[in-house]
Amino acid sequence: DAGITQSPRHKVTETGTPVTLRCHQTENHRYMYWYRQDPGHGLRLIHYSYGVKDTDKGEVSDGYSVSRSKTEDFLLTLESATSSQTSVYFCAIVGEGGNQPQHFGDGTRLSIL
Amino acid sequence: RKEVEQDPGPFNVPEGATVAFNCTYSNSASQSFFWYRQDCRKEPKLLMSVYSSGNEDGRFTAQLNRASQYISLLIRDSKLSDSATYLCVVNSRAGANNLFFGTGTRLTVIP
User: Fold this and answer.
1) Of B43, B48, B89, B90, which to mutate for an interface test with A (greatest number of A Cβ within 10 Å)?
2) What is the residue-wise DSSP string for B13-28?
3) Any B CB within 8 A of A103 CB
4) Which of A77, A112, B72, B85 has the fewest CB neighbours in a 10 Å radius?
């Protein structure tokens, strides 16, 4: 399995609170991704990173921010969580070179009450 | 229009059956194609890449038709353990690592 771990695995919190999810990799890969998965929508890209301090928005970035201060960690922050952000969040990494498949962490189940 | 479209199913087939899934993609610049498998409440896992000439991995065969922008996955001799959701995945453009995911096709293999 790819060396990628997500934390926490489960979280329940209240509307309006800040939440930070962590993705940690041991593969030294440049590219890292955050997705959310909801019924009927499949996986949707929130933000991605192509290097330390280099990030870009994905399809559903509103309400989310990210940071990548070192190669191994990619953080996803919900500044003020809303119920619409209840979802399963997956982090992914991809090897060097183009046209590569992505490999996923175990996911974080986040519930915003 | 979605980047990747799949029949959501569900497909319910008996053990030993052959089943085929299809997928269409909208971006003619896509160059990389994959099938992922996702079990309930688990992360997606790469099943196989799809090559232009078609490729096979045991009981699984993937085909690509660039002219029609169509990808298929054939599973022969279905096993109970094949029950899962199968995701069709394409990249955004040549050389890109960013991927678009279909919503998945649900397969249940029945004893």
Assistant:
1) B43
2) EETT--EEEEEEES-T
3) yes
4) A77
Contacts of B98 in chain A (CB under 8 A): 33, 45, 48
Using CB atoms, which residue from A41, A98, A104 is nearest to B44? Answer: A104
Q: Which residue in the block uniquely carries the two structure tokens 């996702």?
A: B38
The per-residue pLDDT for range A45-64, each reduced to its tens digit, is: 999 999 999 999 999 999 99
Are the beta carbons of A94 and A101 closer than 8 angstroms? yes
SS (H, E, C) chain A: CCCEEEECCEEEECCCCCEEEEEEECCCCCEEEEEEEECCCEEEEEEEEEECCEEEECCCCCCEEEEEEECCEEEEEECCCCHHHCEEEEEEEECCCCCCCEEECCCEEEEEC
pLDDT band, very low/low/confident/very high, at B61 (cuts 50, 70, 90): very high
Q: State the amino acid at position B11 in one-letter form.
A: F
